[in-house]
Amino acid sequence: MNRYTALVRRLHFASPLAHTAGSKLSLPPAQAHHARDVLRLVIGDAIELFDDIGCSADSVIQSCDERHVIVSVRSVQPPSDRAIAFGVAAAVPKGARADWMVEKLSELGTSFFIPLVTTRSVVVPDGKNKIQRWQRLACEAARQSRAPAVMRIDPLITLPELLKRMNHDNQIGLCFSTQSTAQPMFHAIDQLRHTRKVMNLFIGPEGGWTDDEMARMRAAGLTETALTTTILRVESAAVAAAAVLATAFASGNLIDHPSS
Q1: Where does 129-215 show beta strands of DSSP type E?
Q2: Helix, strand, or coil (residue 62)
Q3: Is the separation of the CB atoms in 169 and 198 below 8 Å?
Q4: Dihedral of the alpha carbons of 34, 37, 43, 46, in degrees to the nearest 10
Q5: Residues 183, 219, 154, 190: what is their CA dihedral angle, to the nearest 10 degrees?
Q6: What is the mean pLDDT of the chain?
Q7: pLDDT of 92
Q8: Is residue 132 within 8 Å of 172, Cβ to Cβ?
Q9: Beta-ladder partners of 10
């Protein structure tokens, strides 16, 4: 038997779950459809609800029909205070490559993704449709991977604007560089592993950072780091770096999850 067969089914609930113990909740239409028509869940089946920030609710289906799926919440677990908090700020790759990157970052437990406008950016997604699509992908990936929370998708931002915001928010960052002075990623992480600040990973476009951008990031206190000796595509670098960071902090010295 597949070792995942016995796992309780997991569904996303868009509203906060913190104070819902003992309540009856109506699942959102998309989640109700998934529970009823895809998973074929019925009255009495146990499910786990999870919200955007990492609360989870031990629940059971109380009623199920073509219009509504109602669940009864038995208990609620708050977000873990040991959850790692790191985000990826990256130039956006083309087409389906961006969707794949968002999906995999969410699976790895990345806290937030920041689409970044750089001097050599090829893709600059505008409007809300792309951001909303990425948020749906992040939610679905979190459900399937059993990530504790849903990766937040931030609005598009330029590099100077993000560096200014980081300084105000007391955050730290690693920027990926091909310069000979860049530290191996594990060395950089080891120096920062005891911090309680939120960590940002900066991934440039495939054309690389400009000299001005590198100067700005150095001035902002970002640590230059290298992942491999090869030149990676944006999505490869982002996912590989997130995997390294998630692994490095998996068993201790973890960073608090951001509240927003």
Answers
A1: 152-153, 157-158, 172-176, 183-184, 199-203
A2: strand
A3: yes
A4: -40
A5: 30
A6: 84
A7: 94
A8: no
A9: 48
